[in-house]
Amino acid sequence: MPGLLATVVLAFFIASCQDGRRGVNPGDVAPDIQGVSPLGEPVTLHSIKGRVLVVNFWATWCAPCMAELPDLQALHTALKDRGLVVVGVAIDDSRENIQEVVKRFGITYPVIIDSTHKTKRSYEIRGMPETYLLDSAYQVLVVPDPEDGSPVTKIVGPRDWAQNRALQVFKGLLQ
Hints:
- The protein is α/β, with parallel strands linked by helices.
- Helix content is 34%, strand content 21%.
- The protein has helices at residues 2-18, 63-79, 95-105, 119-122, 164-174; strands spanning 34-36, 42-44, 52-58, 84-90, 111-113, 130-135, 143-144, 151-152, 154-156.
- The protein has a five-stranded mixed beta sheet, with helices on one face. It has a two-stranded antiparallel ribbon with strand order 1-2.
- Helix 2 (63-79) links the parallel strand 3 (52-58) and strand 4 (84-90).
- It starts with a helix and ends with a helix.
């Protein structure tokens, strides 16, 4: 029976690799995200420049996502002049709903609407919200989770991005 289990696991792994699903790993150049802004203008992740990018995946139907948007805006406002750019990636919703959320929360950072729905697959998004940190070459960073300090490639779930611990993590990355 253990041989059968190993065969099934190996077959699943091979199928996953052939399917192009492997997620995003530390040091990888993050896959580009192509979409439109809330105003309908074409935009890509790799066209957004900064020393550190905080790429936050969210949806309007996700209550924890909505709860953390004000903190992400505060983080962006506090550190944008030092080279940090928050990028919101809205998935699974209409442009009209996303426009309303951007207006309601006063979001000034770039928002990409993933109208192709390829992002969930290329980043292997499993929960909402999910956040990655990228350097200026779009490489995925391993960073301390602002919640508990553990090293992570992606942060799953909402965080208080405006708290002092989170600000210290980002200030360290911007030096």
